[in-house]
């Protein structure tokens, strides 16, 4: 990945020297386990987001290679949360970055990462949107985007993935959830 990112960066900047290159998105679930193991998050990962030690070690090796390899102007960290752990995850990621001041964006995010039989509700989803957005900015994340559409097919067309978006119905939106309106109001109030 680092080799391809370097080549891609050169091509992008040759075409547009003012462009910003965004990294691949780091895995949200595995970051929880890694940040917990490193002491940045006190709460152990939930049963929804657990991995073997070998999986965590492999992911951390890959992530460290990506972070140390540079070639990006903005780091993307995916953020699918069910607990207040975002600050610890961001502190952990920054501890591995050559330049901890590099901007972090969460281009793909949502919550809570729960199925309905685990307590998910549309009301909780709306509350979580406000909490996540606020927590992200409080810990220095410069951009926090909630994913909008449900998956229409494939491995992610199921719970909890189809619970977290702001709308129902896939790309042919059939309705907006309470979280859509919470996000809309929040971003309008914060845009000034």
How would you describe the overall organization of this protein?
- By secondary structure, this protein is α/β, with parallel strands linked by helices.
- Helix content is 43%, strand content 10%.
- It has helices at 2-15, 28-37, 53-69, 86-96, 122-138, 178-190; strands spanning 75-76, 79-80, 104-110, 143-146, 167-168, 175-176.
- Strands 1, 2, 3 and 4 form a four-stranded parallel sheet that branches. Strands 5-6 form a two-stranded antiparallel ribbon.
- Strand 2, helix 4 (86-96) and strand 3 (104-110) form a beta-alpha-beta unit.
- The protein starts with a helix and ends with a helix.
- The model has no long low-confidence stretch (mean pLDDT 91).
Gist of the model:
43% of the residues lie in helices and 10% in strands.
List the helices and strands and how they pair.
Layout: H1 2-15, H2 28-37, H3 53-69, E1 75-76, E2 79-80, H4 86-96, E3 104-110, H5 122-138, E4 143-146, E5 167-168, E6 175-176, H6 178-190
Parallel strand pairs: 1-3, 2-3, 3-4
Antiparallel strand pairs: 5-6
């Amino acid at each position: 990945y680092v080799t391809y990112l370097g080549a891609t960066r050169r091509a992008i900047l040759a075409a547009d020297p003012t462009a910003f290159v965004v990294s691949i998105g780091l895995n949200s679930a595995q970051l929880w386990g890694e940040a917990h193991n490193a002491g940045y998050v006190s709460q152990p990962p939930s049963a929804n987001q657990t991995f073997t030690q070998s999986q965590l070690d492999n992911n951390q090796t890959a992530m460290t290679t990506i972070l140390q390899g540079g070639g990006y102007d903005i780091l993307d960290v995916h953020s699918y949360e069910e607990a207040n752990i975002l600050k610890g995850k961001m502190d952990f990621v920054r501890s591995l970055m050559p330049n901890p001041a590099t901007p972090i964006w969460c281009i793909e995010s949502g919550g809570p990462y729960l199925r309905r039989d685990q307590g998910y509700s549309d009301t909780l989803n709306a509350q979580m949107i406000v909490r996540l957005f606020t927590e992200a900015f409080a810990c220095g994340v410069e951009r926090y985007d909630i994913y909008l559409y449900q998956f229409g097919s494939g491995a992610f067309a199921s719970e909890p993935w189809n619970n977290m978006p702001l709308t129902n119905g896939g790309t042919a939106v059939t309705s907006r959830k309470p979280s859509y309106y919470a996000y809309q109001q929040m971003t309008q109030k914060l845009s000034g």
